[in-house]
Specification:
Length: 1186
């Protein structure tokens, strides 16, 4: 009654027109607020478009008009006012007396009037923004003061020790963690070109440098760099002092000289390398002078310190004098201090053999991966090692020298095992030394070759490498190297284009390497190579080459990869030949009898991937081919690589105990595995008798380091029947396709087998249908102690991998993968001790796998626990899978087992699993270091676990806060027991990829708090979840109000397919921001009428892809980047090296979504408005069809 009287009193104070106006504010209260919301969204979009124009102008180094910047500031203030109006209008305080039925009319009138006023003001600002977009900039002003400055950090060290790698990793981490707005890395090189450096910086900034002079370009770069609040510029490979200001990188103080170390830094680096030698009082004053001679250059300091380590004072005195006297004479751009330091390191080498081997490396092309085996063959042919006649001894000598050169930083580890590289600066110095002092020439172009020829240098040369110039250049008509001992030519076909012309004079030649030759006949000049020791003709097309028989002194013949159908029988005349390499000669079909047996000095024979047409012993027939019996006459043979079609052709006592290195393949092996550089056997045999056939194969098998076994159907116990000593040298064991084996090792019948596999690092077994146990009985502590990787697949009777007694010793295990073992119940089993019938949970001992980083468990239908006692109730009761699931709930993991370094977990196809980790919230949220396996996980794949009720359990009452996970990759599919992805206490602040599919009971994907944590997410895909109504659950109270923003800062691509119940991405009022979203795809979401009920910001989104009906669930599931159902599991990278953040940030297409598919342009830059109109058009289309 009081309200009615109050209204009446007010009405009596106004005329009719004012009354209508005031009542209008009340009548149009809701519409005014809604209009304001619409205007706010349009203003936000206008602001985003304007900011995009501003950013583009800044990228071009243009200065922004002050009126534009003032507009940005002004609309920010308007946005704050509108937020207050809309917040109050959307809450319950527009009603009075705490009664829901009585609206507060005075407050509503004020809010309505304010909303209308603000809407008009916003409309005006939107028009202003449209005008600004036409021209936001004015001409740049490069002058004026600059208060900003760069900080500098220096990374120094010997070339090749990892500075570049470290710099790239720093750049990668900076990009990944978004520490800087821009990250730029530029290679300066030994001879820096300022224009090139400027251009490279500009390109990475997406800036066009149109200025012609260096100074103008520097001004442009400096101006742009000032616009960035936080930018990281990495300059790599600096050799000299570099004027950064000339480039455009400005320091606000005097730190504009960059590239050398201070006196204290130089001394620190030198002392750390020289070690305890520097403590000698007689050496300390010399050390200071030597450091000064190095000029603060890291490469000079490192080489000198390595050379002088553990040397006496006289050596240090001599080194100081050499540093002062040594100067480069012909190396362009070489710093004198760098040259003198490398020269000193070379001179200090302890033997002429080491010096010669280093100079030999300098004859290889720049940045080449140099095979140590090639160094052996070249140096042995050169006669580098006096008094060594055995190749294996020479090989050991080469390896020793290489290791010494690497210790001195003169050689680096190559990109592959068994290879080395030279740093380019080290190579420049050694090339100079080789040419000036040893007459060894590495010629890089024809002009250099002609210059050497004109100066008669080549007449005195002892080694010539033309490897880098014969590829595309025409050589001179005649080359005369009368004193040359070594000649290297790759792709050298041009050299021998006239086989009748003695093209070269190489009478003293000892080593000849050719590549890519096409020869039907060898040139007559070969008849003059009487002293040739090593001939390498790799990947050549070889016809009739009888002249090879003339090379009587040849010791090493390498025809690797060459096209040759018949081995010339004249090769049998090479009675001094020690090494014959026919590896990968795929077309070799004929080797005449008595050819190989004539090579009585042969020590090493390599026919891997080559000849297999061996004549079977005792069988008459074609006499055109060689028999294996001939190899028995090679009494000096110590290295043998062979491929044999079957064991039946092996003669008795064929394999000698003298063999030290071997790679023997018997049977069909497709897709040969990597060459580990170890003695190995690959055996595809039907019966065990094929091993014990008096050929010596059994003894060779026992000494192998790598063993591949296929078949052997009558084998029951690997260790007991093949090597009772337990394969003490074996490192890799692969055993597949056997129906008889019960145990890999069984100590119940033989105590000798308890110490089996003490050196084993890799165990891969599969398709062993009757395998019951890997280990049966007790083993010694060191059994399997070095195991790093185990993979088991399709072993139908195997119930567990290891007992606790073995598993507790697996301290080096890094990877476990178990797939398709239908009886597997647990991975590790805890045995009863003595006659104990029951094992209490508390009495079970804890176990840890300290190095395990990857765990894959796929298609194990009876899997219950990772680690459990032998008498668990589930084993004493015969139950079907459904009964087990409904009546027996057990966590897969528990506190009894820990994986402190686990980063990659894949679980797939195990219907018995209800829970992964019971009580994990307590472990993740406690103050101590969490024991839960999820704490350090980076990749998680959960697939086809239909009874899994949750991945992360709900938070317990006494726990507070949230748990931040390290996950970067999360894939969940076909888990119908899940209602949502994660509870609100889970934070995914590091997640990059999120894929969820075919979880048909999942109602929503994320809670509001978890969604807010997805600041690093790049890609989100949700497919085929039929019950999902929204992606983000609408519980505004969770975060304390509807005005909280949800921002997916780095999301690039969003896919929503086959979500039949989806009504919106988010139905709450919070603002949802996607500042980098570029790709959105919808398919079969018939109820998706709006994206969000609040404000949505998508400044980079200009189109969406709409896939219409007609595709079934599987097509949707497998399209556009989803994993196909044929995938067994997904092994995410253990480290971040495989993740290309540049590629992600520059993503232009997501799974080729819009390739031939309907694309809808965004309407009014508003995804909500676009979706609404699309939905309406679809409904109209259906009505017309009806």
């Amino acid at each position: 009654m009081e309200i009615v009287i109050s209204i009446g009193a007010k009405l009596s104070e106004y005329t009719v027109a004012p009354i209508a106006r005031q009542l209008g504010y009340l009548f149009y209260y809701q519409s005014n607020l809604e209009n304001l919301r619409t205007q706010v969204q349009k203003l936000k979009d206008a602001k985003e478009r304007l900011k995009h124009s501003i950013d583009e102008a800044k990228r071009n180094g243009e200065e922004i008009e002050a009126v534009v910047l003032n507009w940005i500031s002004r609309v920010d203030g308007i946005s704050d006012q509108t937020l207050n109006v809309l917040t109050v209008g959307g809450q319950g305080n527009t009603r009075c007396f705490s009664a829901r039925l009585f609206p507060n009319l005075v407050l509503r009138k004020k809010l309505s009037r304010k909303a209308k006023t603000l809407a008009i003001e916003i409309g005006s600002e939107i028009q202003n923004a449209a005008e600004f977009n036409k021209n936001v900039n004015r001409q740049p002003n490069y002058g004026g003061s600059d208060k900003s400055e760069f900080g500098d950090d220096r990374v120094y060290g010997m070339g090749g020790v990892g500075k570049t790698m470290l710099s790239k990793e720093v750049a990668k981490q900076a990009k990944e963690q978004m520490l800087f707005s821009k990250v730029i890395i530029v290679t300066v090189s030994q001879s820096p070109n300022v224009e090139n450096i400027q251009q490279e910086i500009a390109e990475q900034l997406r800036l066009k440098l149109e200025e012609k002079t260096k100074a103008a370009r520097a001004d442009r770069l400096r101006y742009w760099l000032r616009q960035e609040k936080k930018i990281l510029v990495i300059l790599d490979d600096i050799w000299e002092k570099l004027e950064l200001e000339d480039i455009g990188i400005y320091f606000g103080n005097d730190r504009n000289k960059f590239g050398v170390l201070s006196e204290r830094e130089a001394a620190s680096l030198f002392n750390s390398i020289a070690g305890d030698t520097i403590k000698n009082l007689a050496i300390q004053p010399l050390a200071s002078k030597i450091v000064n001679e190095c000029g603060g250059l890291p490469i000079a300091i490192a080489t000198v310190a390595n050379a002088l380590r553990n040397k006496s004072p006289p050596v240090w005195n001599n080194a100081l004098q050499e540093l002062k006297a040594s100067t480069p004479t012909n190396i362009k751009g070489m710093h004198v201090k760098v040259y003198s330091s490398i020269r000193l390191s070379y001179d200090s080498l302890s033997s002429e053999e080491a010096k010669s081997l280093l100079l030999l490396c300098s004859l290889f092309p720049e940045d080449e991966n140099i095979d140590i085996e090639y160094l052996l063959r070249h140096s042995a042919g050169w006669g580098l090692f006096h008094g060594i006649s055995k190749l294996e001894e020479a090989r050991n000598k080469v390896v020793t020298l290489v290791e010494d050169l690497k210790t001195r930083c003169l050689l680096l580890n190559g990109d592959f095992n068994g290879f080395v590289k030279m740093h380019d600066v080290i190579r420049d110095v050694t090339v100079s030394i080789a040419s000036q002092e040893r007459h060894m020439y590495n010629l890089s172009d024809v002009a250099e070759l002609e210059e050497c020829s004109n100066e008669t240098k080549l007449k005195d040369s002892i080694a010539v490498s033309l490897s880098e110039i014969v590829r595309n250049c025409q050589l001179p008509e005649r080359l005369i190297f009368p004193n040359a001992q070594m000649l290297f030519m790759r792709n050298g076909g041009l050299l021998f284009r006239d086989p009748l012309n003695p093209y070269l004079e190489l009478k003293k030649l000892r080593v000849l390497e050719l590549g890519g030759l096409g020869l039907k006949l060898l040139p007559l000049s070969f008849s003059f190579f009487r002293n040739l020791q090593t001939l390498c003709m790799r990947y050549c097309h070889i016809g009739e080459v009888p002249m090879l028989g003339e090379l009587k002194n040849l010791k090493i013949l390498d025809l690797t990869g060459s096209y040759i159908e018949e081995l010339p029988k004249e090769i049998g005349q090479l009675t001094r030949l020690r090494l014959l390499d026919l590896k990968d000669c795929l077309e070799l079909k004929v080797i005449h009898p008595n050819t190989i047996s004539s090579l009585r000095s042969l020590q090493e024979l390599n026919m891997k991937g080559s000849f297999t047409n061996w004549k079977e012993v005792g069988r008459n027939g074609d006499r055109s081919n060689v028999s294996l019996v001939e190899l028995k006459s090679l009494h000096l043979l110590t290295s043998l690589h062979l491929c044999l079609p079957s064991a039946n052709i092996l003669p008795k006592e064929f394999f000698s105990e003298k063999l030290e290195r071997y790679d023997i393949t018997i049977g069909e092996f497709f897709g040969m595995h990597a060459d580990f550089g170890l003695s190995r056997m690959n055996l595809d045999l039907y019966k065990k008798r094929d091993v014990f056939n008096e050929s010596g194969l059994e003894n060779l098998l026992k000494r192998s380091q790598v063993l591949y076994l296929i078949g052997l159907q009558d084998l029951n116990n690997v260790v007991q029947e093949l090597d009772v000593e337990g394969f003490p040298q074996l490192k890799h064991l692969h055993f597949k396709h056997n129906h008889g084996i019960q145990y890999i090792v069984n100590s119940m019948e033989d105590d000798h087998t308890r110490g089996a596999f003490v050196s084993l690092e890799v165990l891969i077994i599969g398709y062993l249908k009757n395998l019951e146990k890997i280990c049966h009985g007790k083993l010694t502590e060191n059994c399997f102690g070095k195991l790093r990787e185990i993979e088991v697949s399709s072993c139908g009777k195997l119930k567990n991998l290891f007992p606790f007694s073995v598993a507790e010793g697996l301290l080096q295990l890094e990877k476990i993968a178990v797939r398709s073992c239908k009886m597997m119940e647990e991975i590790i089993i805890y045995e009863r001790e003595g006659d104990s019938q029951n094992i209490g949970y508390e009495t079970i001992r804890n176990i840890q796998f300290p190095q395990l980083h990857t765990l894959t468990l796929c298609y194990l239908p009876k899997l219950i626990q990772f680690y459990s006692p032998t008498n668990a109730n589930c084993r004493n009761i015969q139950r079907t899978t459904k009964e087990l699931v409904s009546n027996f709930t057990m966590s897969l993991f528990n506190k009894k087992v820990t994986f402190p370094k686990l980063q990659n977990l894949t679980l797939r196809g195990s219907p018995t699993l209800n829970e992964l980790w019971h009580g994990q919230s307590e472990d993740l949220l406690c103050d101590e270091e969490p024991a839960c396996l999820f704490s350090g996980l980076k990749g998680l794949t959960v697939f086809e676990l239909p009874n899994l009720i949750h991945i992360w359990d709900k938070k317990h009452r006494h726990t507070n806060g949230s748990a931040s996970l390290n996950l970067k990759y999360l894939h969940v599919s076909k888990c119908n027991g899940l209602k949502n992805l994660a509870p609100s206490w889970i934070s995914f602040q590091n997640l990059i990829f999120l894929e969820v599919s075919k979880c048909n009971e999942m109602v929503n994907l994320l809670t509001l708090s978890t969604a807010k944590s997805l600041t690093q997410l790049r890609m989100m895909s949700v497919v085929g979840c039929k019950s999902m109504t929204e992606i983000i659950e609408d519980k505004g109270s969770e975060l304390g109000g509807h005005d909280d923003r949800i921002v997916f800062d780095h999301l690039l691509a969003l896919k929503l397919h086959g979500l039949l119940s989806l009504t919106s991405f988010y139905s709450g009022k919070s603002t949802v921001g996607f500042p980098k979203l570029k790709h959105v795809s919808f398919a079969r979401c018939p109820n998706l009428r709006s994206f969000s009920h609040g404000v949505v910001s998508t400044p980079e989104l200009h189109k969406i892809v709409l896939l219409h009906g007609g595709q079934d669930d599987d097509e949707l599931y497998n399209s556009g980047g989803e994993f196909s159902s044929s995938d067994v599991d997904m092994d995410w990278p253990v480290t971040d090296k495989e993740l290309d953040f540049d590629a992600l940030d520059a993503l232009d297409d997501f799974g080729n979504e819009d390739d031939g598919k309907p694309v809808v342009e965004l309407m009014d830059a508003d995804i909500n408005n676009t979706l609404s109109q699309m939905w309406e058009r679809n409904q109209i289309g259906l009505a017309l069809q009806q």
